[in-house]
Amino acid sequence: MDEVLVLAKLSASGFAVEHRRVDSIPALESALGERHWDIVISDYVLPDCDGLDVLSVVRRMQPDLPFILVSGGIGEAVAVDAMRAGAQDYLLKQNLLRLGAVVERELTKSATARALRAERQKLRESELRLHSILATLEDIIWSIELPSQRLVYLNPSAESIYGVSAEAFLRGEVDWLEMVHPDDRERMLRSLKEATTSGSLTTEYRVVRPDGEVRWILDRARVVFNEHGARIRLDGIARDVTQQRSSEAKLRQAAHFDVLTGLPNRILLNERLQKAIDAAIDTDAMMAVVFIDLDRFKIVNDSMGHDAGDELLRVLARRLSQRVRASDTVARLGGDEFVVLLPEIRQPQDAQAVCEQMLAAMAPPVSIRNHDIHCTGSMGVAVFPRDGRDVATLLRHADAAMYRAKQAGRNTICFHEPDQNPASGVLRLEAELHTALAQQQFELHFQPQVDLLNGRRIIGFEALVRWRHPERGLVSPLDFIPLAEETGLIVPLGEWVLRQACAQGRAWAERFDPDLRIAVNVSARQFVGSDVVRTVSRELERSGLSPRNLELELTESMLMHNVAQTVKRLGDLKRLGVALAIDDFGTGYSSLAYLRRFPIDLLKIDASFVRDIGHDPDDAAICACILAMADALRIDAVAEGIETEDQLAFLRDQGCRIGQGYLFGRPVPAEQATALLARGAA
Fold this sequence. Notes:
Blueprint lengths: L2 H10 L12 H10 L5 E4 L7 H11 L5 E5 L4 H10 L3 E4 L6 H38 L3 E6 L4 E5 L2 H6 L3 H5 L5 H4 L2 H17 L1 E9 L5 E12 L5 E10 L1 H15 L9 H18 L2 E9 L2 H8 L1 H17 L6 E6 L2 E9 L2 H15 L3 E3 L2 E3 L3 E8 L6 H17 L5 E3 L7 H16 L3 E10 L5 E13 L3 E3 L1 H11 L2 H22 L5 E5 L2 H6 L2 H12 L6 E6 H4 L3 H14 L2 E7 L6 H4 L6 E4 L1 H4 L6 H16 L3 E4 L5 H9 L4 E3 L7 E2 H10 L3
Parallel strand pairs: 1-2, 2-3, 14-15, 17-19, 19-20, 20-21, 21-22, 22-23, 23-24
Antiparallel strand pairs: 4-5, 4-8, 6-7, 7-8, 9-11, 9-14, 10-11, 12-13, 16-17, 16-24, 16-25, 17-18
């Protein structure tokens, strides 16, 4: 082959040629081993071999490399053999006019083939990765063909949840629908049918495994359409939510019943009291609330210890429960305080009779550790509708009547009387609240929130309002927040808190940490009765604080007021870019079903559950359940009220990332909080 002639033809065709000339098999192998070449142009006759030998080496070392045979004259049979062996073309030395076009064609074909092979390889690797990922997922990934509803894909996770292999389902050996709990089967069929028209599916149901175990499944799916708009497939993800369901049930129990006595707690009492009020209004009936405080209970606790006090509370709780009607409710508010709800009484004297029976039940001594303990109770009674027409008023008046019973010598019963109502004091406090707002007597204190898993690094603060009264000093929020809620002053007060917190948050973010978050409590009045979205947007713009630095804390009961409206309002707030937290979680509804509908970023575990996790298995279990629920929802959890290293260790072991409490710092003014940030850790 005339090397000079070939190179000239290629140059004339516009190719910039970088080449190597070899004339032996070893030299060829060396060249092919060094790099990837674009094309091989070979003579048929070589010193120690022929063109077919060269082609064999090329195909062995670089199978996809284009090969063109150029020779002065070989038989047609040899040319055919070369083409069969993988040569791309054959040219005569005497006629190289086609050389440029042939090389151009083969280079294009080679590049296209390489790109196609690369894409196929990427596709194979992608499929392998996908199958590997799907095989390791705990969730079930499934796909059914439409309209036949034939199962066409199921990942291996099915076996761990259903107790039956994916292959058995796919081969049709097991009917998936037969495994659905009989009570859920019709609803599941209806959901599948609706999904084919609505385009999506979200449902919960139970399955019964071959071993009899029942599992709760959360299933989500979407319809897949082809290019013509026809429904061809339903693809879904199924998750085992049995543990979450169990956790939710435990939380619901813990949220509504007192752990020590088993009696309804404040949350459940308020619910039943509201229902009793509604029923009394509908039937024009009367009802009563009895507030009971044990006399000299503190002496028992101090002299015999808390265990003895707890036993006394349990015994008296049983005695009180045995002396009331089936329709009545005996609840424990906490400490040594009980409340009894007496619905549907005919006259106040009926409440008097029940109270006398309860006093009689408390009279016999309680034997604890070979000691006979005498414990009486002071009882205050408020009657609906005479003494109040809402939950808060009735409880407040019954409480006031109980204090009058204490003053009257204990172990007695007092009914609420209009002249004992401290209305003038309330009116005075309300007027002072107005003045406090006008004269800026309020101030913010900040309690640090820390990263429990990263050296207690401060990652945020909760802003808490304090009232510095010119005469009484710092007034407890417990004394003025309820009144502010009742009078509506909580709205302007809440706006002031938000404004100050945003301004302080901006200053800290600029000086210390651009990710530092400020948590602000939102009251029910603000959330339901005012344009909270516009207010938050305005204060963010005014302060210059980034929305990602602001966290709004809302209570469970507030969110459950009107779920549809709540979902919309929370969505509007999320679109601003702020974080949303449920405060005091576990003391209210604690419903996983509702939580999935709310765009929540954090759950704050109520301090009442954290306080006793070191020695109360129930509270420890509740905390673990809440953390498991948060993990299932892929949101953060914040433990409030951490005071000891033991509590911290438990929460860390359970995977809790964020903590707040006296162990890291009490609420302090901005100056002291700034000093904490400067030190870098709480």
